[in-house]
Amino acid sequence: MKLKYAFEIVGDVAIFETEEKRKDKKIAEEIVKAHKRVKTVLKKISERTGVYRIRKFKLVLGKETETIHKEHGCRYRLDVRKVYFSPREGTERERTAKQVKPGERVLVMFAGIGPYPVIIAKKQPEVERICAVEINPKAVEYMKENIRINKVSDKVVPVLGDVKEVCKKWEKEFDRVIMPLPKEGYRFLDTAVKCLKPKGILHFYFYDSERNLFNKAVGLIEKAAKKAGRKAKILSKRKVLPYGPRVWKICIEAEIK
Ligand SMILES: C[S@@+](CC[C@H](N)C(=O)[O-])C[C@H]1O[C@@H](n2cnc3c(N)ncnc32)[C@H](O)[C@@H]1O
Questions:
Q1: What is the pLDDT of residues 35-57, one digit of tens each?
Q2: What percentage of the chain carries pLDDT values higher than 70?
Q3: To test ligand 1's pocket by mutation, which of 78, 138, 179, 181 has the most ligand atoms within 8 angstroms of CB?
Q4: Which residues, other chains included, contact 226 with Cβ-Cβ below 8 Å and sequence gap of 6+?
Q5: Is the pLDDT confidence value at 218 over 80?
Q6: Residues whose CB is less than 8 angstroms from the CB of residue 98 and which lie 6 or more positions away in sequence, other chains included
Q7: What ligand 1 atom has the least distance to the C-alpha of 164?
Q8: Which of 110, 130, 189, 204 has the most ligand 1 atoms within 8 A of CB, as the residue to mutate?
Q9: Which of 78, 143, 151, 245 is the most exposed place for a label (fewest CB within 10 A)?
Q10: Which residue has a Cα nearest atom 11 of ligand 1?
């Protein structure tokens, strides 16, 4: 009988989820047979939790969980057990990077192991500077290495710390602020608005159900802008990826006047 499972591959690590009972080894062997580069197979055994947005895994096959993932011409070293990373978001990262214009100063909040700042610097070599803030020390360690191996050290500044604290000092400093933390990101909208120059662009990620998709996120952005005595002009509203039954990860892009 055909085994039912879903999986993704990060570098040479495959990660699967399944409802099948006592079939973990068989599933791992099937994945390895079909994907020769896979050396380690993990099974998801929890949702993503905590501030660092990481999950628990069962090691089913292999040993090493640190790997190098290649995406749109960039290379990222990471350990899936210690930091957040999702290969499914690669297209969204590239799409965002292509919007950045020469001379821009960009703030990437919640930067993880650095895939947003790295691909922005690669796709837009004339960007002025990218500040990348992340609270997980292990993720910042990897981000520093990823900045180095992708040769973008002259453009990307990694910063370890809480966005709420670190970004206090920046007022109207950035042309663009990216907020890739859909679950809790709305709590940092005031900070993001404050960091943006007049007419700066905000990329706000959020989870929302299919009913009334976008309305809540747009309301949150407008409220934060108003609180700062500014105005939000919505530039685009998009579904990014499915998240759960009738729930989507969405992105709103807005100009903050
Ligand atoms: C959804 S992940 C996105 C990571 C990365 N941008 C990517 O695309 O792979 C969110 C990241 O935000 C970090 N984070 C959560 N709260 C934070 C805060 N208050 N300040 C800075 N980083 C935070 C987490 O540790 C996690 O790495």
A1: 999 999 999 999 999 999 999 99
A2: 100
A3: 181
A4: none
A5: yes
A6: 123, 124
A7: 19
A8: 110
A9: 245
A10: 110
pLDDT band of residue 138 (cuts 50, 70, 90) is very high
Distance 190 CA to ligand 1 centre (A): 17
User: How many other CB atoms are there within 10 angstroms of residue 147's CB atom?
Assistant: 23
Distances (CA, A) of 201 to 54, 82, 216, 252: 29, 31, 19, 10
Q: Which two tokens stand for residue 33?
A: 């047979």
Ligand 1 nearest-atom number relative to CA 83: 27
- The domains located in the chain, with CATH, are 5-64 (3.30.300.110), 88-256 (3.40.50.150)
Interval between CA 89 and ligand 1 midpoint (Å): 14
Do residues 190 and 217 make contact, with C-beta atoms less than 8 angstroms apart?
Answer: no
Shortest-distance atom of ligand 1 to CA 48:
1
Both tokens of 64, joined, read: 């090493």
Length of the chain counted residue by residue: 257
Closest-CA residue, ligand 1 atom 15, reads: 51
Provide residues with CB under 6 Å of ligand 1: 51-53, 84-85, 89, 110-112, 115-116, 133-136, 139, 162-164, 180-181
Angle at 40 between CA 34 and CA 42, to 5 degrees: 95
| Structure tokens that stand for 252 in this block | 């709103």
pLDDT value at residue 147: 98
Q: For 84-116, write each residue's pLDDT tens digit.
A: 999 999 999 999 999 999 999 999 999 999 999
- pLDDT tens per residue across span 57-80: 999 999 999 999 999 999 999 999
